[in-house]
């Protein structure tokens, strides 16, 4: 599944010191709604949430009749089961449906039974008066009724408005991980695979689609039509899907497969791009896996209300509209990348997840790690010029390094039992870190062995469920067959990979020169700067390196291994004036800290014309590692910031993505403080060359990475009131507002910058003009972009009104987008108090509005991550105390948010002086760069302030935002290619 908001990824960076996975809410996690799984269900033993597996489900026949007059549905399910060991008790799941009849029969003989239901675990138990015996096959028949809720889970309702203003209803499904049980009683565990035959009874004006192809449609006595679909292969319950709608379809048969894309009628033209790349991605996956796509067709559908980003239902992939629909002339380059990578993610799941599913949710990463890996490496097959192999490192790998450095992170292979626990691991660790470790394995095994090992794994486990050991065994067998470790018997694939998947966190490697080479040692990296208590964790670390007298950034095979021990020596020839760089192309999952001599050599080299000789991924690595090591107190800020000065000449987008990511943290901490102008000037001086290089205007022949980095660079420049940027932005906005036709000719990629600048520097008129455009827009991605820009206004009254609109059910802002509004507001320094006060004054209304989502939790965490003053800290603390009893499942996140603010304030007190002094020295020694309209730079930093910073400047940064456009982080999020929650 793909989650909306890559908050997980990016937000985590911003949540500072206290990066907890609870705070990190996810593009990928939007789907999941812990509020529905609150602890109010009572405390039960972990095993109570697992079915006893006395019987084995083999075949489901399901018939559903949705009713759009009263939003209910009637269902019947016949489940054929066997009892290998015989049993007199059957346990299965259902949730939020009403069971009317239950009949268990064997050989057409009904067996008397008593039933009981435990709401906390959703487990329905049938005690049989006559036991089932091992040879017979029996049928559980259940008649039931349910409600088509509007909470985007289970079998639920959604709607859209036609061009004529008519509201049309549809019903769709979202089952992963534990909501199939809301649509039909079932054995709702991923390891319990069965065949499914689905029947949908619908009115004649609608159509239905499901995983499999339609076999027949027949009229029923009550005036409906019953559609019957073919029997599926063995599959997990969470992958079953069906949609009943009046959607139109675009279809393509390329002689291998039938592709269809289903969307609301007036959006059909927006499906062309998705259709154009779909066959190429499937072909890549078929070639990679050497296994053909199994289903007779591949449907994709854009569902107007959709909690996750997208969902990989086998044969019927579902999406948020903005992750499938691309509108030429309106959608941005980042939208396009999001769409391509989400399609690749979901298509990769057709093999990794659907064909081979996790035995239990502990192994979720066997799905999401591979899907994340292919998000980049399969998309590359259809968009070869996007440099997605490099984007993987700066977006997924470095994102995971950030998220995995908190004390509360978890191992990739997790231990989960309850629905809440299961949902909580749809996070950066299961997606990006797992994807990164998979790439690490690819490089230490070599690509060919990696591919052959994966083919072995898929071949052995096809139509079955797997554990991590199944994967490791397949890779190990292949590694042995290819003698990858050259008879070095210490090295064992399973042992190596277990050290990375069963232990939380990762090491930083300290490198010190010795007489004969270098001494290396490993310690767990914690962003708090704390040292891990004994016994210290160690990993099997593949070590690659190069030196500047024999530069080789291409060979990523390990030269040596740090073998699960804390330190070792490496012999190599290293002249006094020669640098060494470890972790070539950042293929392995660790950070590197060097001695002072090496940093000095690297700084000089980077600041010479030779910097280009260092691979762009390692330039990105040096920035990312040093700024995070400094943030944790392991490296001096002066050393880390010294490395950044070479960026004044850098024009490759890859190192910039890393820098902007790390910069966002500093920006958030300095925003509104008296040293903020100093910080802005530092940034503007670094980016002026890049600004000149990419320019303000979009050019027809720009490469895709140029388009992406332009947006981010202009966003920082305009937000920091860089005159050239602001002037260009307002001139462009005027060409739109002043034209009589009101045709928007602003290039789509520039709209976020132009809108935000116009709203920020304009008044009510500009805001109202743009809000009107939101109401008229027919393109989902464009709507979200405008919603984000509307938060850029400095008018506090407007901001308050905007928040009110966001939680008004009758407004045109969908529930799934309402958090975007909050994040757009609190992402600006002056919006933090506005958003918090609004939440505080309208607590009940906000809580109720987001009751079916994790919105309240996300909003509290998001606002807190932006707080920079002791007064705000106090307000938040009071708020949490006051609502201790009614925050519900958001209470833990709220308490964590208070801790986050405490830690952030302490961090600022500790490092502010060093950073400011460095910036003073830097801005004095560099030639005058671009100036901001806020006047001369203030040179402070002589004192360590503990007082409340002022928030005088209207600058935006970001954080946990769903907000897209006007803040830099968001631009980075867009760059990542994951804009929306779970896939
Ligand atoms: Zn996924």
From TrEMBL:
Its cofactor is Zn(2+). GO terms for cellular component: cytoplasm; extracellular space; plasma membrane; side of membrane. Keywords: Aminopeptidase, Cell membrane, Disulfide bond, Glycoprotein, GPI-anchor, Hydrolase, Lipoprotein, Membrane, Metal-binding, Metalloprotease, Protease, Signal, Transmembrane, Transmembrane helix, Zinc. Residues 273-500 form the Peptidase M1 membrane alanine aminopeptidase domain. Its main location: membrane. Residues 579-901 form the ERAP1-like C-terminal domain. GO terms for biological process: peptide catabolic process; proteolysis. Residues 56-239 form the Aminopeptidase N-like N-terminal domain. Residues 1-22 form the signal peptide. Residues 926-958 have a biased composition (Low complexity). It is found in: Cell membrane; Membrane. Residues 926-959 are annotated as: Disordered. It is an enzyme of class 3 (hydrolase). Zn(2+) binds at residues 345, 349, 368. Pfam families: ERAP1_C (PF11838), Peptidase_M1 (PF01433), Peptidase_M1_N (PF17900). Binds 1 zinc ion per subunit. It is a lipid-anchor; GPI-anchor; Single-pass membrane protein. Its EC number is 3.4.11.-. PANTHER family: AMINOPEPTIDASE (PTHR11533:SF290), PROTEASE M1 ZINC METALLOPROTEASE (PTHR11533). Belongs to the peptidase M1 family. This is Aminopeptidase. The gene is APN2_0.
């Amino acid at each position: 599944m793909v989650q909306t908001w890559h908050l997980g990824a990016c937000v985590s960076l911003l949540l500072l010191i206290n990066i907890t996975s609870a705070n990190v809410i996810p593009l990928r996690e939007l789907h999941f709604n812990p509020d529905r799984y609150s602890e109010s269900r009572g405390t039960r033993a972990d095993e109570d949430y697992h079915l006893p597996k006395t019987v084995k489900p083999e075949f489901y026949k399901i018939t559903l009749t949705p009713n759009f007059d009263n939003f209910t549905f009637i269902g019947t399910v016949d489940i054929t089961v066997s009892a290998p060991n015989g049993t007199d008790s059957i346990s299965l799941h259902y949730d939020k449906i009403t069971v009317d009849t239950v009949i268990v029969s064997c050989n057409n003989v009904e067996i008397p039974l008593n039933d009981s239901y435990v709401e906390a675990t959703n487990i329905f138990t049938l005690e049989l008066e006559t036991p089932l015996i091992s040879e017979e096959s029996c049928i559980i028949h259940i008649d039931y009724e349910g409600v088509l809720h509007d909470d985007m889970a289970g079998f639920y309702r959604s709607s859209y408005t036609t061009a004529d203003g008519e509201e049309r209803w549809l019903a769709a499904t979202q089952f992963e991980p534990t909501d199939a049980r809301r649509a039909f009683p079932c054995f709702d565990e991923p390891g319990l695979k069965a065949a499914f035959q689905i029947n949908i009874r619908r009115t004649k004006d609608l159509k239905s689609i499901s995983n499999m192809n339609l076999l027949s449609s027949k009229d029923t006595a009550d005036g409906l039509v019953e559609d019957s679909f073919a029997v599926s292969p063995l599959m997990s319950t969470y992958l079953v899907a069906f949609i009943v709608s009046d959607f139109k379809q675009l279809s393509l048969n390329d002689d291998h497969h039938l592709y269809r894309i289903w969307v609301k009628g007036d959006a059909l033209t927006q499906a062309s791009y998705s259709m154009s790349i779909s066959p190429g991605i499937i072909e890549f996956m078929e070639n990679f896996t050497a296994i053909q796509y199994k289903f007779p067709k591949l449907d994709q559908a854009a569902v107007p209300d959709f909690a996750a980003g997208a969902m990989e239902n086998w044969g019927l992939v579902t999406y948020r509209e903005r992750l499938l629909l691309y509108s030429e002339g309106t959608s941005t380059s980042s939208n396009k990348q999001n769409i391509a990578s989400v399609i690749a993610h979901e298509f990769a799941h057709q093999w990794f997840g659907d064909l081979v599913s996790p035995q239990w949710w502990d192994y979720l990463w066997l799905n999401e790690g591979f899907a994340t890996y292919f998000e980049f490496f399969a998309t590359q097959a259809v968009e070869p010029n996007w440099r997605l192999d490099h984007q993987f490192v700066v977006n997924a790998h470095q994102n995971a390094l950030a998220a995995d450095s908190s004390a509360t992170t978890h191992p990739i292979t997790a231990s989960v039992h309850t629905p809440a626990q299961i949902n909580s691991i749809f996070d950066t660790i299961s997606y990006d870190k797992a994807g990164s470790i998979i790439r690490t394995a690819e490089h230490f095994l070599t690509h060919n062995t990696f591919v052959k090992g994966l083919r072995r794994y898929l071949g052995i486990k096809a139509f079955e469920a797997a554990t991590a050991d199944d994967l490791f065994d397949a890779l190990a067998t292949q590694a042995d067959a290819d003698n990858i470790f050259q008879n070095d018997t210490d090295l064992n694939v399973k042992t190596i990979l277990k050290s990375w998947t069963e232990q939380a966190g990762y090491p930083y490697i300290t490198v010190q020169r010795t007489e004969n080479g270098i001494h290396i040692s490993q310690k767990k990296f914690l962003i708090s700067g704390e040292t891990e208590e004994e016994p210290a964790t160690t990993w099997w670390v593949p070590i690659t390196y190069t030196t500047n007298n024999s530069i080789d950034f291409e060979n990523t095979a390990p030269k040596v291994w740090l073998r699960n021990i804390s330190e070792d020596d490496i012999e190599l020839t290293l002249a006094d004036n020669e640098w060494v760089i470890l972790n070539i192309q950042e293929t392995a999952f660790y950070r590197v800290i060097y001695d002072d001599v090496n940093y000095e050599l690297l700084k000089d080299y980077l600041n010479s014309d030779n910097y280009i000789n260092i691979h762009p991924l390692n330039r990105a690595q040096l920035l990312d590692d040093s700024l995070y090591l400094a943030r944790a107190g392991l490296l001096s800020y002066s050393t880390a910031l010294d490395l950044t000065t070479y960026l004044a000449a850098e024009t490759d987008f890859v190192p910039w993505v890393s820098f902007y990511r790390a910069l966002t943290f500093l920006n958030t901490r300095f925003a509104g403080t008296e040293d903020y102008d100093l910080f802005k000037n530092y940034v503007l001086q670094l980016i002026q060359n890049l600004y000149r290089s990419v320019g303000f205007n979009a050019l027809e022949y720009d490469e895709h990475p140029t388009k992406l980095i332009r947006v981010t660079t202009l966003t920082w420049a305009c937000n920091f009131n860089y005159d050239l940027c602001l002037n260009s932005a307002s001139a462009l906005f005027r060409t739109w507002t002043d034209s009589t036709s009101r045709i928007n000719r602003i290039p789509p990629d520039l709209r976020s910058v132009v809108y935000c600048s116009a709203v920020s520097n304009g008044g009510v008129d500009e805001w109202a003009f743009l809000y009107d455009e939101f109401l008229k827009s027919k393109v989902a991605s464009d709507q979200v972009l405008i919603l984000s820009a509307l938060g850029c206004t400095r008018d506090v009254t407007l901001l308050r009104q905007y928040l009110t609109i966001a939680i008004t059910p009758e407004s045109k802002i969908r529930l799934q987008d309402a958090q975007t509004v909050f994040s757009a507001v609190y992402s600006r320094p002056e919006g933090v108090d506005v958003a918090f006060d609004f939440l505080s004054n309208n607590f009940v209304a906000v809580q109720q509005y987001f009751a079916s989502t994790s919105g309240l939790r996300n909003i509290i965490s998001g606002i807190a991550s932006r707080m920079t003053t002791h007064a705000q800290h106090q307000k938040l603390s009071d708020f949490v105390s006051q609502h201790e009893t009614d925050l519900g499942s958001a209470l833990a996140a709220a308490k964590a948010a208070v801790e986050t603010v405490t830690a952030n304030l302490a961090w600022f007190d500790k490092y502010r002086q060093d950073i400011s002094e460095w910036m003073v020295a830097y801005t004095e020694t560099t030639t005058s760069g671009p100036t901001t309209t806020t006047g001369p730079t203030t040179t402070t930093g002589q004192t360590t302030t503990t007082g409340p910073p002022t928030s005088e400047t209207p600058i935006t940064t970001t954080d946990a935002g769903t907000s897209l456009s006007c803040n830099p982080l968001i631009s980075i999020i867009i760059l990542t290619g994951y804009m929306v929650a779970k896939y």
